[in-house]
């Protein structure tokens, strides 16, 4: 995967649909990590095996097409920082998007907490017409509203969408099994209900 021009390697379990390693900026460190911590179905492999796997992944990711593995996060960082500064936003943020492949990987790397929602969050989600029994569509729904791609439901406002958007992204960033948050430089995840 290439993020902002930097190539990163990581381990992924197709059977478990899970990210199984931190991000590594070079194939050698990925191979060293994999030899020490990962195993194939037929057992552990040596560093040379994992180095070959990492080098081959440069040609074929196995997880996404080429476009899905090349991410520019500069705009996402800017928009995220702006929303964190101004949670009470009253305007759309045209062009706001969250790369779907990135969200897929963050979700595959997340130890989603079993926690109660902050008091106002459920009310915001309900006003937005989001399913309170299934949060999996919340980020996409909030993003579409914030971007101005979908009309705001009657009784809701952009700050409801901003609250849901930030809560979902921050849950992903705060609960990474393998801390990708620092490498991705998506800012300090937080929640202030």
Question: How would you sum up this structure, described in words?
Answer:
- There is one protein chain.
- It contains eight helices and five strands.
- Strand 1 (2-3) and strand 2 (6-7) form a beta hairpin.
- 42% of the residues lie in helices and 5% in strands.
- It folds into two domains: 2-69, no CATH class; 73-184, no CATH class.
- The strands form two sheets. The chain has a three-stranded mixed β-sheet, with no helix packed on it. Strands 3-4 form a two-stranded antiparallel sheet.
- Helix 1 (27-37) packs across helix 2 (47-57), helix 5 (119-127) crosses helix 7 and helix 6 packs across helix 7.
- The longest helix is centred in the last third of the chain and has 17 residues, at 158-174.
- The chain has helices spanning 27-37, 47-57, 74-85, 100-108, 119-127, 138-146, 158-174, 181-184, and strands spanning 2-3, 6-7, 12-13, 18-19, 70-71.
- The chain is mainly α and 193 residues long.
- The two termini are 34 Å apart.
Give me the secondary-structure topology.
Layout: E1 2-3, E2 6-7, E3 12-13, E4 18-19, H1 27-37, H2 47-57, E5 70-71, H3 74-85, H4 100-108, H5 119-127, H6 138-146, H7 158-174, H8 181-184
Parallel strand pairs: 1-5
Antiparallel strand pairs: 1-2, 3-4
């Amino acid at each position: 995967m290439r993020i902002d021009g930097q190539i990163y390697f990581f381990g992924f379990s197709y059977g478990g649909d899970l990210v199984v390693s931190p991000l590594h900026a070079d194939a050698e460190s990925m191979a060293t990590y994999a030899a020490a911590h990962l195993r194939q179905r037929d057992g552990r492999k040596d560093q040379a095996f994992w180095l070959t796997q990492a080098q081959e992944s440069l040609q074929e990711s196995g997880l996404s097409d080429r476009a899905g593995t090349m991410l520019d996060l500069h705009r996402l960082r800017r928009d995220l920082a702006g929303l964190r500064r101004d949670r009470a936003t009253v305007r759309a943020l045209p062009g706001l998007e969250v790369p779907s492949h990135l969200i897929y990987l963050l979700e595959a790397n997340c130890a989603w907490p079993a926690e109660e929602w902050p008091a106002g969050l459920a009310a915001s989600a309900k006003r937005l017409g989001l399913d309170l029994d299934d949060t999996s569509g919340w980020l996409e729904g909030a993003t579409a509203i914030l971007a101005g791609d979908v009309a705001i439901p009657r009784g809701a406002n952009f700050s409801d969408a901003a609250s849901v958007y930030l809560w979902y992204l921050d849950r992903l960033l705060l609960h990474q099994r393998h801390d990708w948050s620092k490498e991705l430089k998506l800012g300090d995840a937080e929640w202030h209900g």
